[in-house]
# Entry
Amino acid sequence: MATAKNTICLWYDKDAEAAARFYAETFPDSSVGAIIHAPGSYPEGKQGDVLVVEFTVAGVPCIGLNGGSTFKHNEAFSFQIATDDQEETDRYWNAIVGNGGQESECGWCKDKWGVSWQITPRVLMEALVKGGDEAKRAFDAMMTMKKIDIAAIEAARRG
# Structure
């Protein structure tokens, strides 16, 4: 196991391996690495259970820890996936929501394990960086959306 110097550790109840495999199948530059089994029993698991899963999501090294039900994910942490077009936006959004996830607002959704994702078209971020009236129009349009509609953001940018 070649752990990166800085790794994001995500706490799962017991499904870290399933989550890692889903992410690896869904996002490019993603993979599942080492799977570590518990050398002994622990509060919500037993010897031999999957304890830690090393994985990468869109190039970001992560570790999934099957720690039990003590802690839950929330929106204070999210993965932000930049998309280039509506097809890519739809593909990721539909994969997450269609696999037991849940829609939220402004391009946010949660996967079935409770991890938050921002599926964010680059055109939206470009508008926000530009600032001024164009940013305000794009922002106002985004505020009415669940999944981001790129055509509507582009139309808002133009005024």
